[in-house]
User: Fold these one by one.
Assistant:
Number 1:
Amino acid sequence: MAQRIHHTHHLVPSFFILLLLAFCQSRSYSQDVILSGYEDFLIPLQNASQLVKNFQKSVAPGSLLAKYYSMNDLKLVLAQPDCVGVRIYYAKNSDGSPTLVIVGVDSHNNDMVNGPLIDTGYPCPPFCDTVHIVRH
């Protein structure tokens, strides 16, 4: 069973790492599914760590490994009426560098494009956790 994090300042980065890992897994879903916001994509730290290690072995040194997003931005996206979760798109900046775009998703599996969207965040590297998920 995954341990719960009791310090709020660790919640958002850890939450996003687990969320990103859950979205990266190849799964087959029907597009006609009604989403509730209570779907369970939690995984134990050991699994999360292995998934991150697998990715990091496949990229060049200095590649984008993660991004930090503020709790406030996430709350703004999630607070939209009928928002039950987020979708994270792999994207590229105009200079070709990788980024992520986060959009709210409603219960009918639609991107909520008229609401707040998140992009920038702090990239890792250089803004990385000193304890890092891979060390577990």
Number 2:
Amino acid sequence: MTMSDAHARGVWYPALDGLRGLAALWVLLGHVAQPTLYNRLVWILLNNGLAVDLFMLLSGFLMYSIHEELSEVGIIDFWLKRFFRLAPLYYVCLIASFVLTPWFLEVATEIWSRTPHLHGWPVSNSIASFVAHPTFLFGLSPALQQSTLLPDWSLTLEAQFYLAFPFILMAMKRFGVLRSLVPLLFVQVGIFYLFRDMFVAYVFPSVLPLKLHVFLAGMLIAAFVKGSTWGAGYLTLATLCVVLPVPSFSLSYSICRVAMIGIVLFCTKPLDSKLASAVRFFFSMRIMRWAGDMSYAVYLVHTAIMYWVLSFLVADLQVNPLRSFLVVSGVTLVFSYALAAILHRLIEVPGIHFGRELVRGRAARTCEEKPPPA
């Protein structure tokens, strides 16, 4: 989901671009910290799964912000636009991932052997992986949720949310936001606890029942920002969503997610506060918004680049952790953002534009096929 979608709808929040940029940087630095500064750095950096939660929160917010689009283009065209938002760049990176798998396994095995606190993951070029990943539904299988060198388990969640969103929106239009989302949350919690033994097999929360509440929290924040007599209820329910004990409860994680809600509000709600103005100014800076534009590509390419850099420093990882972290971070940042800029311009943006033109073409043909009024 890009802020350009929201911009086109006239509901653009520039600071959210910068917030996405921060989330991608957080993921990258957290991944570098794991083999270099493990247990030596602040907790917040190592737990970069919170950055993925931030992506989901923003996705829910932005999807609700442009939900009128669904009424105009219909479900199929809505899904088409979402598909071309994710697929072109992902498919390019996925092909590269399959090609690089033998090299990655050789390099990663050496790194994992020298960093026993790291747990490797089962990367393979299996037939099941080849078939499942292009569908974006690979996350439904615990064995396939991270079977490539890409950190793509969160993309399958995004795709599942896109599939579910039109039906969630239909319920909200018919019954109202709170009357729809409160029962939905009860259903989610019920499914989780009913099939808890099955969900234990998922190392990453790559199925929607494990993360739907985070997307819904983003939608509720957007509803609150839009303004309503139920605003207090929306914000209260959003807060309850991010502290929901699914897949588990963590006080520190819950505090961080509540803080994320505050930051999103600072970025989107006109508040008479110097702190809110400072936060909004920082994330609206040009370099932060540029980082937001690069965030999807950076998210996809940084793991391969990081392991390439680590391969040159594998002997020093535990000898000089701080130097290793600084060197690996610096080089990975430079190459990741440089490659991301190229991929953004040549693949990601043209793919998004192609999806929009495809939908416009379908809409035009539909209008031509309609019989004239009697």
